[in-house]
Amino acid sequence: MPLIDDHTARLNELLRDPVLSGAMVGVCVQDENGKVVFQRDSDKRFLPASNGKILTCLFAFEELGASWAGLTRVWKEGKRVEVDTTGDPTLTLGQLRRVRKKLSLFDGWPVCVHGAGPPTLGMGWEWDDLPWYYAAPVTLFAFDRGQFEAWSDNGRVLPLAPELQVKVVVEPGSKREAEYDPKTRTLTVSSLGKDKKKLGSFAIGDPLRSAALALGGALRECSDPLPRRTPDAEISGQTLAVGVKECLEKSDNYMAEQYLLLAAARAKPGHTNPAQVEKECLAKWTGASLEDFRPVDGSGLSRHNQVTPRALCTMLRWALTRPYAGQWIEALAAGGEGTLGSRLKSSSFVGKTGTMDAVVCLSGYVTTRDKKRWTLSCLVNNSLVPASQIRDVQDRIVRILEETTVDHGINSAIASLESPLSFSLHRPARRNWLP
């Protein structure tokens, strides 16, 4: 379906911008019927960075359902604590502490955790990412999304939660203001000013052990079956729709990794490769080619992930046909929100960003001048200029598409065909999804 006026020429000219010189650039734009209206290398595979969360969260929506919520059950068995979890990416340290207080759990009691699995790292995660919050080890029993913040004030490091078991060392002359080793759980600080200052956000070194400590005890292997009686305490998590909104708007890697594990376990119990389960399911549901994408983790942090712009557009359009379509749109970031906080304000665009070294991606939905709902994916790899310059090009693509109208002369034969999708991509008034 060609575009009228000079919009195609403007897009082609934009993709010749010198800031894209030497980079791999893939663009796909599909209309409301799935027809490609513009493309540039849309069948080539790219690193998606956090655009990979689109795949993960769609997989979770379809497999778990928008109303799914995690559940953590706790029993006090003599001087032992038994925990059973379905997984809950929204579990907090405060919730675990309240259970400890309610049940009068004492220090040192063994805590046996069922259903969590040991903390793991994503395939291909880079070693220098591991201290940071966005590369936290993933397990189905952890609090605060596997991460913590460190602050200084008035010449000292503010106390950290004892459950983290972090040792703070002040060492003037360190290379960085704050360095953290998740293996030894040591935070080394080079200097401390008088003003309150955030030192960084870091990964909890052993999130499963820290969660057990939040209940007052030491992690132990589970040798006994779960009690058959009613749990002494239960913690219900936020619904998937609410959690995915937080995951996508904030681009939270930990939440995405948990959602991948949870959805894959539901889709194929006993599997050994959750990303492969996701791939097989999404290809079957959406009609995307198996050759068009290769997820290896849930967050997009791994540089082994690959996807074509065409596959992302196909999946995004498929999402609009699902019963949870409205909740899916609500979960995506609009201009001025989340990772789009400084971009595309007063725009119709809703979608997902993706950024890592030399990778800048943008995929989502844009509404044309004549109220057509189109999907867009623009993936840029191997760029050597600042990411802000690539984002400017991507935002200009969105603006051009918003000004577009369809050539009704050429398409008069299908002018009466309307999309079966009835809801608008303009989202309703904001709801207070987050606490």
Brief characterization of the structure:
The chain is of the alpha+beta class.
Can you offer a commentary on this structure?
This protein has 435 residues and is an alpha+beta fold. It has a domain at 7-66 and 239-412: 3-Layer(aba) Sandwich (Beta-lactamase). The chain has helices at 7-14, 52-64, 93-103, 207-214, 240-250, 253-267, 274-286, 309-319, 325-331, 387-402; strands at 24-30, 36-40, 69-77, 80-85, 110-114, 147-153, 156-157, 167-170, 178-181, 186-189, 197-203, 218-220, 233-239, 293-294, 306-307, 333-334, 350-356, 359-367, 373-381. A 6-stranded antiparallel beta sheet has the order 2-1-19-18-17-16, with helices on both faces. A 5-stranded mixed beta sheet has the order 12-5-4-3-13. Strand 3 and strand 4 form a beta hairpin. Helix 5 runs parallel beside helix 9. The longest helix has 16 residues, at 387-402.
Q: What CATH architecture label of the domain at 7-66 and 239-412 applies?
A: 3-Layer(aba) Sandwich
Summing up helix and strand content along with how strands pair, one would put the structural category as alpha+beta
Order of adjacent strands in the largest pleated sheet:
2-1-19-18-17-16
Write down the Rg: 24 Å
The CATH topology assignment of the domain at 7-66 and 239-412 is Beta-lactamase
The helix-strand sequence is HEEHEEHEEEEEEEHEEHHHEEHHEEEEH
Give the N-to-C terminal Cα separation. 44 Å
Determine the mean pLDDT: 90
What's the layout of helices and strands?
Elements (H helix, E strand, L loop, with lengths): L6 H8 L9 E7 L5 E5 L11 H13 L4 E9 L2 E6 L7 H11 L6 E5 L32 E7 L2 E2 L9 E4 L7 E4 L4 E4 L7 E7 L3 H8 L3 E3 L12 E7 H11 L2 H15 L6 H13 L6 E2 L11 E2 L1 H11 L5 H7 L1 E2 L15 E7 L2 E9 L5 E9 L5 H16 L33
Parallel strand pairs: 4-5, 5-12, 8-10
Antiparallel strand pairs: 1-2, 1-19, 3-4, 3-13, 6-7, 6-11, 9-10, 14-15, 16-17, 17-18, 18-19
